[in-house]
């Protein structure tokens, strides 16, 4: 139950939007809740004797708007579909990978992703990756029921459903449900169908969860039986012996994402500490920790080759099969998704 208790504590902290943990004032990290776990950057603590100062966000659009409004941090943690937006907005700067001793461990497929490496400049350091997929209580939801994403809209599960409150994950669910696996090829009609499905699901939603910590607490309580959420929930609750499983192989599929760290423009702290923090995250020990303790994949190819398969990760190609890859979208589509998602959550 140790993990579950940590989820409850993390969730309580994150009820206060923008809550921060103040440690080393010379490095401010703008991050998702939970990533302040020192197991992710132990080499940094060993060198400097303290963890960075953290400020948290629950959604990348929230983070983007906060930075645009003047908030200053040294590092940010966007995901694949946001790096291009942050770069185009001029809020991040290129990263000198020659200053990272562990850079050669990063899988090229991640380092060279669309929008992350442009004209030889690296705009983000890929770190964590995984799935957003149907996660369910195996004692209350049958395998047959959990074989389709349409179970989220089944009236049988009214008030027993939770979705991660993230616009990209939400529309990944919506598009998958209507047969779209490349949202950049979706028509206006496809978007309308995806939105209609999300409105049907909303009727069953008891609450939306901000992150894996909150999603895990909800599933552990028994309040929620079905979630559209990240690897962390099923992996960690399963390790604690709870009847929770993730099904990435529903009839409609699942979604795959990758996130990483960016260096922010006009950063207030130590550039050297920022590089040391990134290098600590790329270390073998950090990669092993996120795979075995949190259930996520890591960009460190050496570690993934050694322990990935035994922890539910095959090759990157096999993991991404039958999936909607959360690739960068056009600015127009993303703004449309953001606006509609807020309406859906409000019941409109």
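^ Assign residues to that structure.
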């Amino acid at each position: 139950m140790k993990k579950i208790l940590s989820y409850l504590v993390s969730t309580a902290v994150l009820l206060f939007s923008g809550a921060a943990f103040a440690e080393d004032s010379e490095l401010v990290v703008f991050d998702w809740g939970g990533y302040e776990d020192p197991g992710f950057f132990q080499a940094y603590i060993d060198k400097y004797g303290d963890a960075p100062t953290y400020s948290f966000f629950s959604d990348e659009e929230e983070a983007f708007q906060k930075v645009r409004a003047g908030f200053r941090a040294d590092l940010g943690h966007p995901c694949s579909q946001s790096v291009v937006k942050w770069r185009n907005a001029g809020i991040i700067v290129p990263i000198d990978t020659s200053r990272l001793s562990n850079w050669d461990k990063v899988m090229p497929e991640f380092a060279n992703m669309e929008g992350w490496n442009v004209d030889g400049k690296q705009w983000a350091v890929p770190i964590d990756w995984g799935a957003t997929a149907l996660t369910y209580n195996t004692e209350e939801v049958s395998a047959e029921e959990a074989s389709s994403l349409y179970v989220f809209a089944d009236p049988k599960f009214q008030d027993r459903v939770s979705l991660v409150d993230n616009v990209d994950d939400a529309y990944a669910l919506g598009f998958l449900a209507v047969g779209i696996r490349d949202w950049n090829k979706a028509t206006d009609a496809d978007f309308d169908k995806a939105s209609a499905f999300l409105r049907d699901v909303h009727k069953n939603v008891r609450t939306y969860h901000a992150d894996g910590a909150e999603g895990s607490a909800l599933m552990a309580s028994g309040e929620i039986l079905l979630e559209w959420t990240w690897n962390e929930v099923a992996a960690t609750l399963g390790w604690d012996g709870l009847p929770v499983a993730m099904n990435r192989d529903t009839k409609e599929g699942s979604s795959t994402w990758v996130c990483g760290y960016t260096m922010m423009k006009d950063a207030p702290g130590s550039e050297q500490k920022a590089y040391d923090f990134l290098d600590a995250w790329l270390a073998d020990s950090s990669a092993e920790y996120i795979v075995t303790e949190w259930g996520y994949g890591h960009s460190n190819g050496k570690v993934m080759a050694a322990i990935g398969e035994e922890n539910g990760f095959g090759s990157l190609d096999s993991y991404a099969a039958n999936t909607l890859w959360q690739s960068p979208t056009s600015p127009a589509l993303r703004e449309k998704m953001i606006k509609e998602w807020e309406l859906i959550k409000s019941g409109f």
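Residues 1-17 have pLDDT under 50 and may be disordered.
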